[in-house]
Amino acid sequence: AAKDAGRGVYRFYADAMHNQASERKAIEDALRDALAKEELKLLYQPIVDIARERITGFEALIRWQRGDGEAVSPSKFIPIAEESNLIVPIGEWIIRTACDTIAQLGPGYRVAVNVSPRQFANDRLPATLMSALSASGIAPAQLELEITEGVFLDESPENLEMFQRLKRTGVRLALDDFGTGYSALGYLKKAPFDKIKIDQSFVLGAADKNSMNAAIISSIVGLASALRMETTAEGVETHDDLALVRRLGCSHVQGYIYGKPMDRDEMLALLRGSDGQVVAQGYQSAR
Ligand code: C2E
Ligand code: MG
Ligand code: MG
Ligand code: MG
């Protein structure tokens, strides 16, 4: 009987793994057509200079609404796009679309795009950037690339070389999700980052009593300022969070307190109505 039960468990896992693999394959196939079917779009979330309470730019965040109406989260499909290399054409579309948006915003604003590890490793990335920059006519420093710490898993000379090639195109570089990966501090010194984005896992609830997060944020800010980099605190939802990251010296904030990701028209309307000046809205956190 024990043997039968064991076989049943095995069957259960085998089926679950098979289902997972075929779900991935189905997502990959649908994603292959998503660009052509115009099912992908970018939303834009404000990034605010804390001291001046002004929007200095936006982060472009991808959304996929499938033909059947189902919305697929980027945390689900970006890893599949990565493994299948579909991230390369999708990433090129993201860069071109973001550059067009920047041209519409005018010279006072930046847009940041997320660059995943496979995109970063692609030899054609600098050429893609240069062609998108010149087609849109924007200043290169208006475009910022957010690179996640995961890229550092491989501390190769190739990576350092790519950072230098990207920097030479004139775009800005931000280190995303800082604190969640293997922080290679020596490497951070060598790579030409303009900004560190403090992961929201350190920010959400940082103002709560007994949280270690304030100490972590404070040391990241100290490190960034020694390296002459800006810091953006991600995931700021409440007035308490905002007061804390301001006191700890973060230069920028991004979070629901100033705005959720919005579509291009909403973004343009927001700027028309406010000229970039913003007021923190008491976001009622679900935490
Ligand atoms: P990320 O780059 O760290 O983006 C920040 C995420 O935090 C976004 O989730 C954003 O909507 C969310 N967020 C911002 N403020 C708040 C807040 O106050 N509270 C809470 N609870 N969440 C907040 P999203 O849009 O679901 O994206 C998730 C991740 O997917 C991104 O993390 C990024 O790693 C990836 N991703 C999104 N768009 C792209 C893209 O165009 N290309 C690539 N390669 N990856 C992308
Ligand atoms: Mg990001
Ligand atoms: Mg981030
Ligand atoms: Mg993050």
UniProtKB/TrEMBL annotation:
It comes from Sphingopyxis flava. This is Diguanylate cyclase/phosphodiesterase with PAS/PAC sensor(S). The chain holds residues 524 to 810 of 910 of the full protein. Signal peptide: none annotated. It comes from the Bacteria. Residues 24-275 form the EAL domain.
